Amino acid sequence: MRCRDAKRWLDARRESNPEQADDSALQEHLQKCAACRAFEQQQRRIDHLFCATVPAPRRVSTSISTDQIMRAIQQQKKITQQLEDIHQQQQNRVARLRTVGTAVAAIGFFTLSSIPLLLLAVTIIQTDLAVQILSLLNGVIDILIILAQYLQAGLTLVTRNNWLLSGIAFAVVVMMGMWLRLMRTPQEA
Ligand SMILES: [Zn+2]
């Protein structure tokens, strides 16, 4: 009897009734072959394990062959491996994102910090351009000042002729001040 036949016989014996088969050839082979003896012992151990954990009829436990258990173990290993792969991929992705984020932040910071330097460079190199920009700003400021003067003149005109209006304006200013104070207090606390 060859080892392959012996193993097939052992599997068949587990699935059928052990007593009914005539297994003298198998016993003979088992006495000679250590590998098949180990295989049979492994089978017995697994059967024993199943009988201990599953208090079901022996029929149930014997219907699961060693190959099936081995296949299940292999599958389990494969699933574990896949989970580890996914975990690894996620870690790689996070690391990559972190690198990209750092780069973007560095570029943004560099750009922002270079604007004053750029303005300084423009002031030094293109003096005319800088003067033009400043004069443009001055124009805007002039307009604002003129508007404020008009507003002041208008207010003066109104308040000079009407004490009631000035009183209302004063009350509005006081109320606005109180309102601002009330709004600010919770933030400071
Ligand atoms: Zn053998």
Question: How would you summarize what this structure contains?
Answer:
The chain has 189 residues and is mainly α.
Shape by Cα distribution? elongated
Unreliable residue stretches = none
Number-wise, the strands total: 0
Q: Which range does the strand content fall in? A: under 5%
**Distinct small molecules:** zinc ion
Give the SSE map.
Elements: H1 3-15, H2 24-32, H3 34-53, H4 58-62, H5 66-125, H6 127-161, H7 163-188
Bound molecules: zinc ion.
Residues 3, 6, 29, 33, 35-36 line the site of zinc ion.
Write structural notes for this entry:
The protein is mostly helical and 189 residues long. Among the domains are: 3-51, no CATH class; 86-125. It is 89% helix and 0% strand. The chain has helices at 3-15, 24-32, 34-53, 58-62, 66-125, 127-161, 163-188. Helix 1 (3-15) runs parallel beside helix 3 (34-53). The chain is elongated, with a radius of gyration of 46 Å. It starts with a helix and ends with a helix. The model has no long low-confidence stretch (mean pLDDT 80). The structure holds zinc ion. Residues 3, 6, 29, 33, 35-36 line the site of zinc ion. Residues 3, 6, 29, 33, 35-36 line the site of zinc ion (ZN).
